[in-house]
Amino acid sequence: PQYQENCSIERIEQLSKDFYRLTLRCPMIAAHAQPGQFVMVACGLTLDPLLRRPFSIHHCTQDGTLQLLFKVIGRGTQLLSECRTGQSLSLIGPLGHGFRLQPGRPVSLVGGGIGIAPLRFLVHALQQAGGAGADCTVFLGSRSGDELAPLAMEFSALGCQVHTATDDGSLGHHGFITELLAPELSRFSKVYTCGPHPMMATVAALCHSAGVACEVSLEAHMACGLGACLGCTVHGTEGQYLHVCKQGPVLDAQEVAW
Ligand code: FES
Prior knowledge:
binds FE2/S2 (inorganic) cluster, 7-stranded mixed sheet, 2 domains, about 35% strand, about 20% helix, 7-stranded antiparallel sheet, Elongation Factor Tu (Ef-tu), domain 3, Rossmann fold, alpha/beta, 6 helices
């Protein structure tokens, strides 16, 4: 089921210079959301439908809250960052297909930049399904340590083993996060990834050659989020078009022509 809900903002956190997190009260959407799904959010008070933007669901709780983690990159996200507690936002969701859980086996979650957003909810679901012993190793990459540090600490606090890499070397490995993943890959039964396209392409290729299952959450230009505008297509390996908003955003890495 999908819902349109007016969700009041309960909390706004600025985690670093450009990273923000909103906690919203959305009982209907939160009750039905799966990790990896997304919502379309009307940013700010305007009713301009063009300002509905897709956001992956960062986290949901049983008491009906939903969190969005976003980076200010344009007008819509700027408006969102200027919202105030108590204000309401219109959300449509949950949309798309999420991650397929593989609990109880060692899995790896690889996030780059704002692509880290959906991994929080995924860890929660894996732990719910697999108990406290769910073995999740998280690889987080970003431009610099100031945006990565608060998120890395949260994943550690959840009991995940966390590896970090930054472009400027200010936290963890100085280089690509995939360089840390590669030597450890064989111990995982599955890898989930979300982040910049080149990073996911590398993760997909590494998994393919190691024979490890891999699911990717694709970023695409989503105007409607509902399968109506065809603006979100990517090429599949069999020459077919895949609609990221409908068939994705989570797809098997081997379905995508990288
Ligand atoms: Fe419009 Fe996918 S975003 S069809």
